[in-house]
Design goal:
The complex is a heterotrimer. By secondary structure, chain B is mainly α. Chain B contains 20 helices and two strands. Chain B has a domain of about 210 residues. Chain B has a two-stranded antiparallel ribbon. Chain B is globular and about 65 Å long. By secondary structure, chain C is mostly helical. Helices cover about 80% and strands about 0% of the residues of chain C. Chains in contact: A-C, B-C. The interface between B and C is medium-sized, with 37 and 28 residues.
């Protein structure tokens, strides 16, 4: 068995993911500053671009404080769960077409699992434990509230998240994410790319909203709502353990934007690129670029939303999840089924 | 492929499902009050029994062998619907008296009946398990229906925890049987039975199945929950689960043990016979010491589980017929007895003790007479229904070389006469000094009329009833 | 020892160990976490049997949803270490434990003695029946009826839960 290929892939993806997280943190801060008409980080390095590195160094050097009444074991376990879940989810997402290197075609995906979508849902489900346990083990009421809120929120939105994907799965007829990306090849009327965002607009919107909730981004950041809960589930965390939560949050954001890209925005497809007659290697690299560009658009959207919408109240959050998102995504499944039946009649 | 016949054979199930969904819809839309739900439930149950009646002479398997409809299952559907109707009739006065009349009662009642009908017509262990769970879920909640009362909460929680425990045994048993047969379909198991009946794995599965079902029928030694749950639950619910719940569980037991396994004369039959003897002895002896009528009937129901198990242990077609006949007798009698207790019970849960019935015949002679009728029937005195049931069950046991079991049955029946007849003595031969209780409302009267009439009809015309579910006999 | 056997014994050992932890931990949160670990081992065992769908569903449903709700409730009730249950040792408990142990020995004996009769794992069959497609087709043809009954079961459970838990009944 050739173990080298997956190991190299894992190393590359992991490195890229961590670097990207650092960049996204900075981008978030810079873009937020731009929206609020401030400068943002501008001291470390040219134009403040080294800020993230300085932050990491600071967090590593900081003392790790564990409250006396905390449950030590669980307190240590929680950030590990969070970061593991955030980093392993990327394994099933294809970030490019096959790439020809050294005379061999390589798949740009770590594990092409045939239940890929279910794997992602299972992993996001596991992510709850990190937050919930962090909240409980700190033995602090604000942390506990944050943990409780996160488990309620994630469970409520996981349902509509899963259901909004059913339409995509029905169209593609597979749970393998690579195959779903490939099913988005081709054009309607010769010029509209067959991306799922066009055939599944409602599924796209519900999935997008649910992914905000799953990543705890505003307007769904109740688990860490600063004005009410100090810092939410990670109030009692310091040093690199806090850093891990922070990192996993941004890694989650990257993963979910990658997922949205792969499932709805045609993944690494670059419209009409096949007709330009490029060298296969250049084309493959261009497709990776297309994938990253689409991800970048989604991430920018995350940041814009953060400074556009106010935070939901807890009951509004639950109402939206159970009384709007869930029925809409179920109706979407039904509508998709009816249309498919009608088309294949 | 599904055909028209599939749906025809499952018609009673469909009518029940449509009814329950209709009630949920009207409750959610607040179209009518709880009494409208009651009306819908009774109508739905009447339609169901009518449809089941049309199916009495049909037989066949439906939905890829998941359910089997025949005379016995259709007959039991009618019996269960009847139990549902009587319960629904009695429920309204009972709960209105306590300011707890809500439409959810009928929703859960009908769901429970769906589960029971599934158990009676199961042709696959998966359907059987789902039926048992559907019934049990509803009964757990119904046992604690008035949720502000501590006693009912205790009853519901006890029932739920122990019931879940029993379900785990049942499921493990099903898994082991599946492991040794390779199928959960009862027909397939029946075909394979001769070859595997002595396999340890299969026997272990059977044992687990007996534990799980033994709990549902409250047979000794799986009876510990029954007295507390029966006493704590609202009386109408107790009546329903003591009769319909037991009927469905025994139907399932009879279908699996007699029709599928053909246990006659095997070790499994010996085990069941032992359980039967233990239930008869313990149920009847402990019942003597009870002063609360609900608790007394709980132990009596343990004893009746023993008599019924004797029919199952016989393992013959006669035993099968005996079980069904006994179930009919037991259901109509006990339902009626609980209807009387429910009427006599005060809102503060008093009025169920034996002393409260002193001299009842003096100011409510009709009700006292009806209650006496039920007690005679439960004792097994001819010509009432209870006698016929016992006669058929014991006869089946004797013919299957279980004479000792029949003797135990007859002896313990004699013991049971003591506590059943004590109720009659209390009502008729003592002076009344308690409060005056007004006559029951019309629906309760109707329920009492139906059950009392059936106690006599089944007792006088057993062969007609037998013809219904055993056309061949 | 093949890799498959190694996986089986490893996962089995961790599974049994975590199962024991579930019942011996005094802290309910730790019990719940041990149960999650147990579910993961079970999912791993399903994977060795080529039942990928069941494995993932095991994680999504049990570890991801049900156990989170368990934790939620434990935290909401703010349960602390449970001492009352374990400190007293009565005759009743000893007898109960003895009987349970006896049952365990019986089951083990039977399973051991029946081991030769077990059908051997059929690799090709396992691969072909464990996929999502096959399970989906089975669910909507042969097992359509139980599938629908399950929906009734859930509806009944919802009605019951609402009835028991609703703050104010009209």
């Amino acid at each position: 068995m050739d173990l080298l290929e997956p190991i190299i892939k894992i190393a590359v993806v992991l490195g890229a993911l961590l670097t990207a997280s650092a960049i996204v943190v900075l981008f978030d801060r810079k873009f937020s500053a731009y929206i609020q008409n401030r400068y943002g980080p501008n001291r470390v390095g040219p134009g403040g671009w080294m800020q993230s590195i300085a932050d990491v160094v600071k967090l590593v050097m900081k003392e790790d404080i564990v409250p006396k009444a905390a449950n030590r074991f669980v307190h240590d376990l929680a950030p590990m769960i969070s970061i593991t879940v955030a980093l392993t989810t990327f394994a099933v997402i294809p970030f490019g077409d096959t790439i020809p290197l050294f005379g061999k075609e390589y798949n740009l995906i770590i594990a092409d699992v045939n239940v890929g979508i279910l794997y992602i849902l299972a992993m996001t489900g596991m992510g709850v434990y990190g937050l919930t346990l962090a909240g409980w083990s700190s033995n602090n009421k604000y942390s506990l509230f944050g943990g409780l809120r996160s488990s309620a929120q994630l469970i409520s939105y996981e349902l509509s998240m899963g259901l909004s994907l059913i339409g995509v799965i029905m169209i593609a007829g597979t749970l393998q994410i690579d195959d779903i990306v490939r099913s988005q090849t081709g054009y309607w009327f010769g010029w509209i790319p067959q991306w799922n965002v066009i055939s599944q607009p409602i599924g796209f919107i519900t999935f997008f909203v649910a992914s905000f909730a799953e990543t705890n981004r505003l307007p769904f950041d109740l688990p860490e709502a600063e004005p009410e809960l100090v810092g939410g589930y990670h109030t009692e965390y310091s040093g690199m353990k806090f850093g891990l939560f922070f990192l996993s949050e941004y890694a989650n954001m990257i993963v979910s934007s990658a997922l949205i890209t792969a499932l709805f925005l045609g993944g690494w497809h670059l419209p009409f690129a096949e007709t330009w007659g490029l060298d296969p290697l250049v084309l493959a690299l261009l497709k990776i670029g297309a994938f990253m560009f689409k991800m970048f658009i989604i991430i920018s959207f995350y940041v814009v939303i953060r400074w556009t919408l106010p935070r939901f109240r807890y009951d509004q959050l639950m109402n939206l999840g159970w009384k709007v998102m869930l029925p809409v995504s179920i109706a979407n499944v039904l509508a998709t089924g009816v249309v498919m039946l009608w088309l294949t009649r | 492929m599904l055909t028209y016949t599939d749906f025809l054979l499952a018609m009673p199930l469909f009518s029940l499902t449509v009814t329950v969904l209709l009630i949920i819809a009207t409750e959610a839309a607040r179209v009518g009050r709880a009494r409208f739900s009651q009306f819908l439930a009774i109508t739905g149950l009447l339609v169901t029994s009518l449809l089941a009646g049309l199916n009495l002479r049909e037989s066949g398997v439906a939905f890829q062998g998941m359910i089997a409809t025949d005379a016995a299952s259709s007959y039991l559907t009618i019996l269960l619907s009847l139990a549902g109707i009587v319960t629904a009739l009695v429920a309204r006065p009972y709960f209105e008296h306590r300011d707890a009349h809500r439409g959810e009662f009928y929703i859960l009642l009908l769901f429970a009946i769906i589960g029971m009908v599934l158990m009676a017509s199961a042709n696959d262990l998966i359907t059987l398990f789902l039926g048992i769970e559907l019934m049990s879920f509803c009964l757990y909640v119904l046992a604690g229906f008035e949720r502000t009362k501590d006693k009912q909460n205790e009853s519901a929680l006890k029932y739920f925890l122990l019931g879940a425990f029993a379900s785990a045994f049942l499921l493990y048993g099903i898994a082991l049987i599946y492991g040794s047969v390779g199928s959960t379909n009862l027909d397939a198991i029946a075909r394979a039975y001769a070859g595997i009946s002595n396999q340890p794995l299969f026997l272990l599965g059977t044992a687990m199945l007996i534990v799980g079902l033994g709990f549902k029928v409250a047979a000794v030694p799986f009876h510990m929950w029954a007295p507390d749950v029966y006493e704590g639950a609202p009386t109408v619910v107790t009546g329903f689960m003591a009769t319909a719940g037991k009927s469905a569980a025994f139907a399932a037991l009879a279908i699996v043990m007699i029709r599928t396994f053909d246990i006659g004369g095997s070790t499994t039959a010996d085990v069941l016979a032992l359980l039967a003897a233990a239930s008869m002895v313990l149920g009847n002896v402990v019942a003597i010491a009870q002063t609360n009528l609900k608790r007394m009937l709980a132990y009596s129901s343990v004893a009746h589980a023993g008599y019924l198990l004797a029919g199952v242990a016989a393992g013959t077609a006669e035993g099968f017929a005996g079980v069904f006949l006994y179930l009919t007798a037991y259901t109509v009698t006990t339902l009626g007895a609980f209807a009387v207790i429910g009427w006599h019970e005060r809102t503060n849960d008093e009025g169920t003790s034996l002393d409260d019935y002193v001299g009842l015949s003096q100011h409510q002679p009709v009700i006292a007479a009806v209650m006496a009728l039920y007690m005679f029937s439960l004792t097994g005195i001819p010509p009432f229904a209870g006698f016929i049931g016992k006669y058929y069950v014991f006869m089946a046991a004797v013919r299957a070389d279980l004479t000792w079991l029949a003797i135990v049955g007859v002896l313990t029946s004699a013991v049971s006469a003591f506590y059943y007849l004590r109720v009659i003595v209390m009502m008729y031969f003592r002076e009344r000094d308690g409060e005056h209780i007004p006559l029951p409302r019309i629906p309760v009267m109707i329920a009492l009329g139906i059950t009392a009439a059936l106690v006599i009809v089944v007792g006088v015309l057993p062969s007609t009833v037998l013809q219904l579910f055993m056309p061949a006999m | 020892m093949t890799l498959e056997q190694l996986m089986f014994y490893g996962l089995g050992a961790v599974g049994i160990g975590s199962g024991l932890l579930v019942v011996t931990r005094r802290n309910p949160v730790m019990s719940a976490l041990s149960l999650v670990l147990n579910f993961f081992c079970l999912a791993g065992l399903y994977l060795t049997l080529n039942a990928q769908f069941i494995a993932v569903i095991q994680i999504i449903v049990y570890a991801g949803a049900i156990m989170v709700l368990f934790l939620f409730v434990i935290m909401l009730l703010n349960l602390r270490d449970e001492r009352a249950l374990s400190d007293r040792l009565s005759a009743r408990k000893i007898i109960g434990a003895g009987l349970a142990f006896g049952l365990l020995l019986q089951v083990l004996y039977i399973l051991m003695s029946a081991a030769d009769g077990f059908p051997q794992k059929d690799e090709a069959l396992a691969v072909s029946t464990g996929t999502v497609e096959v399970i989906g087709v089975q669910l909507f043809t042969t097992f359509l009826f139980p599938f629908e009954i399950t929906s009734l079961l859930l509806t009944a459970a919802i009605v019951g839960a609402v009835l028991l838990a609703k703050k104010k009944l009209d």
